[in-house]
Amino acid sequence: MGLTKTEMFTDLQNEIALFAKVLGHPARVAILQHLFKIEGCICGDLVDEIGLAQPTISQHLKELKLLGLIKGNVEGTSVCYCIDKENWTNMKRVMLQFLDQDIDNKNCC
Amino acid sequence: MGLTKTEMFTDLQNEIALFAKVLGHPARVAILQHLFKIEGCICGDLVDEIGLAQPTISQHLKELKLLGLIKGNVEGTSVCYCIDKENWTNMKRVMLQFLDQDIDNKNCC
DNA sequence: TTAGTTCATTGCAATATTACAATTAAGTTC
DNA sequence: GAACTTAATTGTAATATTGCAATGAACTAA
Q1: Do B106 and A37 form a contact (C-beta atoms < 8 A)?
Q2: Mean pLDDT of A86-100
Q3: Which nucleotides of C are covered by protein (CB under 7 A)?
Q4: Which domain holds residue A89?
Q5: CATH of the domain at A76
Q6: Lower CB density within 10 Å: C or N end of chain A?
């Protein structure tokens, strides 16, 4: 069906999955890496940098913005995108708490 | 098109995206959390625990297994699934390196 | 005002994902 | 063997995602 049954899961499980999902495309990973590298960015740069068409980049930026990981300020004809530091840190905290589990494997395998 | 153009991205970017993608569904997050909690598991438990149908759970387990995050041992009629510690640690390392970036935001916003 | 620039939006096609009923496969128990 | 249990596989339907051409919106420059 392509439709995730979010109502069966906890808020935290859904939150983790949403964050992970938006990171689950190499173009969005590349965009974020680039924004970290240059600390502030114009979308035109990204189209050249990444190699996908402008509408495609624009759409990926939209998804990142929707989750709050980046924010954009209009500046003349351009739009300046950058990492939303506070939301990034929050996302990082949620993901680290999930990822940084350790296990004994004493019962199995 | 639904088809990711992986060839435009680095191996690392694709690897990060693949790991993130498999974590991008709450059922798989829930499965992993459960495996961590009980340290060794039978799939039947998961169907009851999570509430999706058996084939759906089986399919999610398959994806987790494909990425190597879990492994399954046949044990009689049941299959014992558990976290693949080594691969989990590797995934964690890759993701932490990506997530744990800091930024100054001195140029923008 | 006209032309140019930059980015968002719309519309569409192709592929991917999610979910499950039905079935199969492989083992156990009697 | 027959009946039962557990989990994988197959087939199918519905929705989501990805990508881009075409277009639109907003600003700038001449």
Answers
A1: no
A2: 97
A3: 4-11, 13-22, 26-28
A4: 19-98
A5: 1.10.10.10
A6: N
